[in-house]
Structures are given as structure tokens and as C-alpha cells.
Amino acid sequence: MITLSNVTKIYKSKSGSVTAVDNVSLHIREGEIFGIIGYSGAGKSSLIRMLNGLEKATSGQVIVAGRDMANIKGRELRKARQEIGMIFQHFNLLWSRTVRENIAFPLEIAGVPKQERLKRVDELIKLVGLEGRENAYPSQLSGGQKQRVGIARALANNPKVLLCDEATSALDPQTTDSILDLLVDINKRLGLTIVLITHEMHVIRKICDRVAVMESGKIVEEGEVLRVFRKPEQPITKRFVQQVTEPEETKETVSHLLEKYPQGRVIQLTFVGDAAEQPLMTNIIRNFNVSVNIVQGKISQTHQGAYGVLFIHIDGTEEEMDKVIDYIRQQQVEAEVMTNVE
Ligand SMILES: Nc1ncnc2c1ncn2[C@@H]1O[C@H](COP(=O)(O)OP(=O)(O)OP(=O)(O)O)[C@@H](O)[C@H]1O
């Protein structure tokens, strides 16, 4: 659905030039929810804005739904943009228009006749769950409701792709989850391809199929979300994964344990999918002559299955502890012996 080949975006100004996107190649499949994560300034906005022609690539090729976005203009560009909806962090609604009028706006621009427009707006209001709020103005809506208007407006012209630019960053955690659920629902029901940019791993974990990690204009890591959670390769990816798996207290607890029990071992276990559901601890305690102390644990649900991290402290003879670690690894559970915590 979307293919970027060697895309670079350089901004030139009097004070010099900034390479915001640096030779990025990427393929996003039809119907998937693809996340791009990075810290502020990584180049995410520049990248997503090239997908709908709001920015032109300095070099390289951007193909969206069969169109070369860098080389189309005028009518063809307007047509291409109708097939690419976009939602924003601060919603970008028209404040003097009601919910209904905001959603109707792109249909007016596309020249859809009035009767058809009214029907389509009603459908969209139902789709995003805004029944009863049709005649409210944006200032009378909660943040979540405003984003629902933004989503309905973005979907008005039946786009093939929905771009989400930090769409939940201005919302509280509960509202964030309800908007993410709505995006998954729309993705399933309409088969829409969704590309989102975010700095929050929670968003990626909850709804994305695949993720690309961006740093200094480059994609430094890319893959299935579950794979990236299980085995993040780059230091920046590890930091993002820790946002959702490893609370601050864990580091303190582990450091404390390493100091307090220098003779034992603190082990980080990582479970994925079915491995998260087996009675591993019971088997260790029954079959090996070690003491086991469960320190901390958390199971997270990703879009593709469960992922869990558990910290345990074991103590016994060196030989017996080695046997335990071998046993754990045989159960398709990753075991990392902690030596120090960064
Ligand atoms: N219109 C512009 N003119 C000049 N420099 C720009 C422009 N837009 C972005 N930049 C620069 O390009 C780099 C990447 O910015 P971009 O907004 O794409 O990153 P980002 O990851 O989306 O960050 P943020 O979340 O803060 O927007 C930054 O150094 C930024 O200052």
C-alpha cells in the first residue's frame, strides 16, 4: 500500500540545512496498523507529512496507493489526498462549525451532493459513536469526542489510508485507550491501512502489527511488534520497550537485591504467548534444590499476543542454579542473569 524508497527530506534555511529524514526505505502492507516511534525531532512528522504530500521529499520515491506523491500536482494531488485521511494531536477542527458540519466539510470540498452528504455524515457519526452530539460545537466536547470528530472527518471520503499524527498524545490514559480501540475497530471493519506516529510505546503495544523505530532521521529498527518487544536490538528500542514493561521501581528493586544477596542470582525471565501460561515456578521449586523469590512481574497484552517479564531471585549451589537456568531456557522462556542495572 505504501512504499518509501531512499527517501530524504532536507529543510534549508538561512542558518543552514537540517536533514529531517535520512535515506529511509519502508514498506507498509495493505490493511495493517503500522507504528513509527521516536523521540521529538527524530523526523516522524516530516515522514508522515510526505505520505500525503504536505511535504515533498528532497530525494527518493514515496508511493501511496499506487501514486508517486512527490511527482503529482493540482487535481491529481487533490484526488490522491482524498484517499489519505489524517488526524492530528490537537484535532484541527473548525471551531465555528458543529460536529455535523465539521464532518461534512471534506464532503463539501469533494462536491458530494447535499442528500448524499447528510446520509454519509449520519453513518460516520454512528461509526465513531457520537450519536446525540451532532449539533454540539467543538468547545462543548471532551478531548476524546473531539478526536472522534477528527476521525469521522478523516474517513468521510472513504480513504484507503489513515495517517495519525500523535493522535492520542493530548488525551488522558483512559480516553487514549478508547480512541485506540476505535482505530482497531475501524481497521478491522473497513480494512483501512493505518500509519501512526507516536513517542509512546503503549500506543504501539496496544494496536500496532509492526513498528519502525526512528532516530536522527533514520529507521534504526523495524519488525513485528511482538518480536521487537521480545528482542529489541538497538539501545533506543530497549528504552522504548522499558517504557511499558519495566517500571522505575523494578530497577531499584533489582539493584537492591544484587547488593543484598550477592551470592544468589537475579534473573529476568521473558515469556511470549503460550509460554506465559505454564506453571514454571512450581516446576522449579519442585524439581531443583534452590530457593526462589519472586521479585516483580508484569504481563502485557500486545495486538498479537501476551508478553510478560518476571524478575526472580534464586539461591543454591552454582551447579543447581545453572541447571535451573538451562531448564527455564528449555521451556522457551528467555532467561537473562542480571549483573547490574543501568
Ligand atoms: N519546516 C521546517 N523547517 C526547518 N526545519 C524543520 C521543519 N520541520 C521540521 N524541521 C526539523 O526537522 C527535524 C525533524 O523534525 P520532525 O518534526 O519531523 O520530527 P518529529 O520526530 O516529528 O518531532 P516532533 O514530535 O517534535 O514534531 C527537527 O530537527 C526539526 O527542527
TrEMBL record:
Pfam families, A to Z: ABC_tran, NIL
Molecular function terms from GO: ATP binding; ATP hydrolysis activity
Might you name a Gene Ontology BP term for this protein? Answer: amino acid transport
Residues annotated as domain ABC transporter: 2-241
Q: Which UniProt keywords apply?
A: Amino-acid transport, ATP-binding, Cell membrane, Membrane, Nucleotide-binding, Translocase, Transport
Q: Which domain of life does the UniProt lineage start with?
A: Bacteria
InterPro entries, per this entry?
AAA+_ATPase, ABC_transporter-like_ATP-bd, ABC_transporter-like_CS, ACT-like_dom_sf, MetN_ABC, MetN_ABC_transporter-like, NIL_domain, P-loop_NTPase
Tell me which PROSITE patterns the record gives: ABC_TRANSPORTER_1 (PS00211), ABC_TRANSPORTER_2 (PS50893)
Task: Name the PANTHER family for this protein.
Answer: AMINO ACID IMPORT ATP-BINDING PROTEIN, METHIONINE IMPORT ATP-BINDING PROTEIN METN 2
Identification of the protein by name: D-methionine transport system ATP-binding protein
Lineage, highest ranks first: Bacteria, Bacillati, Bacillota, Bacilli, Bacillales
